[in-house]
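The pair is set out directly below:
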Amino acid sequence: MKKNTRIILLTAVLMAVCGLGYLRYRAARPYTPSPELAEAYGSLSQAEADRPDSTLRTGADCYDIEKTVRIMNSLEVAQARSGSFDELLLYMARQDYDGVAKEVLAAKKRMFPILEEMNALRKQYDDASSVMGYLRCVSRQAEEGDLRRGGLGATMLAMSLTQGRAALETAFDAYREQQHLKKELAAKLAKINREYIRYVEEYAPVYHKYMREWDALCLLKDRAYIDLYSGRYADALNNAEKVLALSPENEEGLLLKACALIESGPAAGRTPQLPAVTEGPRPLPLADPEAEAAAALADPRYYTAERILDEYLRRYPDKAAPALVLQGLLFRRTGRPDKAMASFEQAAVEYPRQAEALTDILNAYNNRAYLDKSAEGLYLLNYYRSTMEGFGMFSPNFQKAALLLAENRIEESRQEIYRHFFRRSRQAAYHCLLSDMQYCETHLPAGFRSLFLEAGHIDLEYEPSAAFLGMGRKSDRLDVALVNRSDLRLENVRLFLCIHYTGMYTDDYEVVKVPLEKNLVQPFERVGFDAVEIAPHTVDAITRIRAIVVADDRIGWVDTPEIKRSRATAAVLRPAERAEAARRGNAADDFVPDAPEIKRLIAERMRVNDRPLRTTDRAPLRTAQRPDAQASLPRRAMQAVGELFGDKQADKLRIDLPRILALFDPVFTIHAAGETDKTRYPERNTLSGEYIRLVFDLRPGKDETVPLYLYGNALRLRIEIAEADGSFELIAIEEV
């Protein structure tokens, strides 16, 4: 018995030694790909031969960490998403491997013997889909699990790294059972499975190595973005130079450094203490020597920024749009408006191509889904997307509008704002329309606010869509309508819903375009739009909805009556609402007189029941002292725009106020908001001709004082009127 045991053990040892020897022989022998795999293998081999050792981090031939990570992810994702074996090979053959680390290229080549065996099986069996289906199935299983956690499809490699070797075996067993494979085919696929597990185990350290390096680079870029967003330009410059020290040709690093230098320049109105400007690890020569001589006389920050942008445009002509915007901004800051306009116009042409990178599943920022889990992460995404899509500071149209506004070319400035929103409303990504609105209200108030002065008299309505045959309501569809309470005629109307759901950051929204565009919204008309799908969300998860209206000659916010009332009458506003109120108030200063002049206009032009008010000396007009009061401006907004809208109901209180008050997006009440037993809102509030027309279901008694409250975004008034001898007289107007 013992002899037999020794024989068995000896046999097992010999088999193990032979197997190990075979594996070493196989690994050492030269690999010659079949004709089907030759093109893909040749692309990797050629790129590997052209690359220096992967440890080199300086010099013209150092690898690019972002390109390296992209290739690592792209080849893994291709396994999960390729429709056929030939499609996978074609994808691998046509990738651009320039700048990819040699170590990664060598690791990827080690997968080709596995692909070779798959190709042989494909020739032997009619059911070719089963051969490719194995690799695709297990990859998708890993990918779907990772997507549920909010990341980019990390593939079977990620599954093996996070769940262990057993996960790969389990995935194969599940596929074999689902497909009911023939015994012989199952055995050969099992062999491929073992080979693939061995490949993954060898490849994992390489994968981790470069992902750690990429994470370190992202950390520095994140810091630079946050510093730029916060106005800490010296820190932003320092972190951008650290990015370039790790990755000298990094696109974002070059843009971040140039932006920090431009924003810290003297023409920006800031003089921070900056560290000494360095050229980075590599010289960045100017393409034009004459420009170098001219720039030598300028501020050193602008000089260096100009050199960086010239170098960026030389290296990345296919991604030139953000650099052209920065170049235009630099030209503007250094007193070259004609060159600035030319750069902005060229950027506007290039941005549609640039924006396509955002829809790429392998985009670096799609691989960092954790960024949308915090407010700071949203800032980073917002800044990055602005460079890719051309909105906010990186909008060439907004920059042109600012340039034209500085030259007092108001109408041309407005047209540039229209062009921006026309371009943005036709792109696939709508989320940054919010930033577009905020940027215009902050930096282009004179041009933007005048685009939709009457927005407060356009209401948004929405409700859950009716189910089939009206039996209940659908939980993931909304019916949307606009109510026009003004004499405006809106043409070519596009509507974007900004929806805040439970669990979202306080001032964050998901932007959804309403499918149907309306060619016309008539004055005093309610217009319904197509139903909007909000799946996977439900109506019950909605906390509030706002909308952005983009028409041929109008752009602005539209809210529900409930939101307008709560925002205008709230004692404490949310941060975003406070900021918006301040922006609108600043914009209103460009169009309306100050508070004393407004009160004078009300006293002169207010009408009650179609009759002018009488004045009284019983109570003088009282004016609160406001440190931010502005001097009166010309009355260009006071011109008549239509005829008076009348309502002859005898038992109603009808109040007409100057149309200019519409600039404040006002909410009106009789008695102060919050006095629940007395407060009355108008049953009708329309904008027509020279007046805002209010109709209250109220008939004041003789000598009864009626307190009318106006709650605006930059002005709050209490207007007291009283009936006497069949007419009304003004008692007082005061700020509250």
